[in-house]
Amino acid sequence: MNQITLSLPAHLHQQLEEKAAKNRKNVEEFLLEIIQKEMEASQDKPAAYTKDDEEKVKERLKSLGYID
Amino acid sequence: MTKVLLFGIDGGEPSLVFERWRKDLPNLDKLMQKGCYARMNSAIPPNTIVAWNSMISGRDTSEIGVFSYTFKDKDGQSKLVSSKNIKCKLMWDILAEHNKRSLALYVPLSYPAKAMNGCMITDFLTPGVESECTYPSSLREELKQFPDVEYFFDVVQGLAGHKSLDEGTIVKRSYAMTEMQIEMIKRLITREKWDFTMSVMIGSDRLQHMLWRHFDETHRRHIKDSPFKEAIPKYYQYLDQKLGEVLSLLDDDTVVIIASDHGMVKQEGKININLWLLQKGYLVLKEGVDPSKKQKFSNSFVDMEKSFAYGGGAYNARVFLNKKVLEKNYESFKQKIIEELKAIPDDQGRKLETHIYTKEEVYKHSNDPDCPDLTIYFDNLRWASNPDFGSAGMYSWESAVGADSAGHSTQGLFIIAGKGISNKGNMGVINIQEVAPTIMQALDVPIPKDLKVKPLPVFEENKSKTKKTVRQRIWHIFQNQH
After folding, report:
1. What are the two backbone dihedrals, phi and then psi, of residue B93, each rounded to the nearest 5 degrees?
2. pLDDT tens digits, B84-113
3. Is residue A64 part of a domain?
4. Contacts of residue A37 in chain B, CB cutoff 8 Å?
5. Number of independent structural domains in chain A
6. Kindly report the CA angle at B159 between B289 and B130, in degrees rounded to 5?
7. Would A50 be classed as within a structural domain?
8. Which domain holds residue A12?
9. Domains identified in chain B and CATH numbers
10. To the nearest whole angstrom, how far is the Cα of A1 from the nearest Cα of chain B?
11. Which pLDDT value is given to residue B159?
12. Nearest-CA neighbor of B271 among B376, B124, B358?
């Protein structure tokens, strides 16, 4: 794995250390997890439904009161 | 090796199974007598897709990353959620890391099917049998052999809603659907290798939503002497019989869990949440939007430069506070509106037993944009929420869409029995997130370090799989010697 050095303000590093400890991780593991989650969330995922399929299922859910 | 079978009864109501109809449900009664059972606090909100996934991950709603059936995409469009929205590991993901094989059958929010160590047939959010509804995909061909495969995933198909069906058709199709689903459970548990099987029967939820007032004499819209008054109790008896058939195929090494995602409660009516916010002056509509006109509420109606809040939700209400306008008054406004929402009475002026959860108190990741600031259970969910416009006054009784007979209640049911499970009987109340680590302990799989919830104390002492520390072992030896 290619590694880079990241500079962080001391107070932020301390906060990270505390948060990471609470999650039973070291700072590096904790940061990696956050970054990975953020990257995954920002990626465009292929649509699960076609437009027609989505309408079909939405209509079913509306009739049950599951969606408004 | 121990196996776990989780037989889910969607909307299985604990008061009906544990008390009212227990004597008519011999297989469930036997499991309760042999093992442990409890009322189970559902997820917040007690929404089917959230609750089942909370049960098999041990995570809260915000960790799963799904708050309701729709979410806003990057362009702000409302999209239907799917298995691709789930942000945490589910039971079969965790078990696969320990070479354990799972069968995931009809588990809500499993569509589209994903590759896994085992087999999957997806849930009621599946568009149809030609879609990505199975893993491996070859299983689809087997489903297609059922003559009624159109109703394999749910009792309605296409653009027809449940309300477009008469009661007799709903009952008939619920049985047809369940029959096919049970048949596939039986085939798969006998021919596949598995360590964990989970199946969810959705027919119970559908019948209760649609037919509750036919049997509940306390319902304000009860239909006296309805020909469908026995439909729900008969279906519970039928499910119990089918459960017996499944249990007869299991070996003695299996731990059996019966669970529901939420219970059911009669629906008194709906509180028109956005009309209330409008009346209070907290919601300001854009020019040209007429709230007296019958129309579905849309966030695009809201003047975001002037509004403090806007609402949504179906069985529970959801209120989003507009931080941009409230700025530093956010906290004080939140407290004020909570008190005011709690003071909303019923249509006859009676006080309601309303519970309100703030996102900070119940969710680990409360900054998710889909996370409502307030989740409201009007009268503990006996009153639902109507966000739409066009109703006269604060209350509405029937809506163009949506079941009006019963909604979701806050507690489901949990029963566990089998190899290594103690005979504690009624355990009181448990939490839905506690089920996941309990399954892991039964299967001797390490519980993820960051999972906050612990396994339920259901294991026999001498068969407890909890690893003792060296100090505990020494202390145990010391105690036995003295």
Report:
1. -70, -45
2. 999 999 999 999 999 999 999 999 999 999
3. no
4. 87
5. 1
6. 135
7. no
8. 8-43
9. 3-266+408-442 (3.40.720.10), 269-402 (no CATH)
10. 23
11. 47
12. B376
